[in-house]
Design a protein that fits this description.
about 130 residues; alpha+beta; 5 strands; Alpha-Beta Plaits; single chain
Length: about 130
């Protein structure tokens, strides 16, 4: 099955939005945190043409501050479960609305400072594997 990349991007953004944050299906120029964006994608093509694998890098930006309150907010999004857990939200539909055969959140790397449009934000990077 060929992965529908655009549909997978949209499904990931929609799923993240269920936590109440704003989302972008592509790398954003300007954001208003908390914001989730679907970023870079790398594709491993299966030589048989049967199953391709996408590694999707998503980012969450929570605050322009890096104080303990911002880090505590980030904790909620990085948790394995809970109403703000991105892992839980992203894995509700493992087929991303039919865009792929399966997906899973591989890891979340947090407490990084990212720069968007010249502004520094505290956030995390989410790596998602999408199999087609």
């Amino acid at each position: 099955m060929a992965i529908n990349i655009s549909a997978a991007r949209q499904a990931l953004a929609d799923a993240a939005g269920s936590t109440g944050i704003s989302t972008f299906t592509y790398i954003a120029d300007n954001i208003e945190p908390p914001t989730f964006e679907v970023g870079e994608i790398s594709i491993d093509f299966d030589d048989t043409g049967n199953i391709d694998l996408l590694s999707v890098i998503c980012r969450l930006y929570v605050s322009v501050a890096t104080d303990s309150a911002a880090q505590s907010e980030l904790d909620l999004y990085m948790a394995r479960s809970g109403s703000k857990s991105l892992k839980t939200a992203l894995e509700v539909d493992h087929k991303l609305g039919g865009a792929c055969q399966a997906m899973r959140v591989e890891k979340i790397d947090g407490y990084r400072v990212y720069q968007v449009a010249g502004i520094r934000y505290l956030g995390a990077q989410i790596t998602v594997s999408v199999m087609g």
